[in-house]
Amino acid sequence: MQLHAEHLRALREPRKSAYVAYAECWKKRFNLIEQSWSDLYVADRHPGTQVAEGLLVSAAATRSEAIDMSAAMGPVQAVVYVEGPREVTHASVTASSRLVDLISLVRDSSAAVQNGEPAEEHAASFEPARNAAYNSYLDFLYAASDALGSDLLPSTS
Question: Does the global pTM surpass 0.70?
Answer without folding.
Answer: yes
